[in-house]
Amino acid sequence: MSVRNRQIVRQWQLLRLLSESAQTVLELAGALRVTKRTVYRDLDALAEAGFGPARVQDGFPPVRYRCPGLYLRGGILIPRKIADETGRED
Questions:
Q1: Average pLDDT of the residues in 65-73
Q2: Adjacent-strand bridge partners of 70
Q3: What is the pLDDT of residue 14?
Q4: CA atoms of 36 and 59, how far apart (whole Å)
């Protein structure tokens, strides 16, 4: 698999993780088996692409990230707005 393909796959995995729960960069790096710097780069790339991972502050550091605009249905990520309109199952 090419470097670019691995990057895209990793970013989709990151979106899936962020759609499930808020996580720290360290947790994401461990789950994806990459450095924290790579996670920060991927978060920036996803934000630039319009996916907008949000910073969630639980009152104390470390900061957690979440992507509340996506919903995982049957292994497929879909925008939450569309999921709500089609009657998603929670």
A1: 71
A2: 79
A3: 93
A4: 22
Tokens of 35: 């450095």
Measured at the CA of 82, the angle between CA 77 and CA 83, to 5 degrees, comes to 65
Tokens at 30, concatenated: 């461990």
Smallest Cα–Cα separation from 70: which of 83, 89, 57?
83
Tokens read off for 49: 């692409």
> Which domains does the chain carry?
3-85 (1.10.10.10)
Phi-psi region of 34 (alpha: psi -120 to 50; beta: other; left: phi over 0): beta
Locate tokens 């360290």: which residue?
Answer: 26
